Predict the structure.
Amino acid sequence: MPDLLSIFNELRPLISRYNPPLQPKRDEPGYYDLWSFKDLVIVDRKRKEVFFAGLIIQKSYVGFYFMPVYAEPDSKQFFKPELLRLLKGKSCFHIREVTPELLAQIDDALERGFKLYQERGWI
């Protein structure tokens, strides 16, 4: 069984780099997320916030939820196979171990996702 809290603690600094301008709704042991709080219209729906990314310790993995991949599915083409094979569903990556290569790939994805949100005016 992987040490999920250690994995969470290795990933959290990568996400928290974007705070500010993004802000957490929840910041507690085993759960961390970042949101953009801004009046927006996305697909003709008014919103006051948009989710960016989060980490949740689950039973056997750390869930890395990454909404830019949901907002722009074509962004998956930039992911390397090591990261892409961890994507389960539309926006959740199941992380069971961390390597320097995987950390670099997640860091790159976060940077690209942040730029996408900036370009769309969501931040």
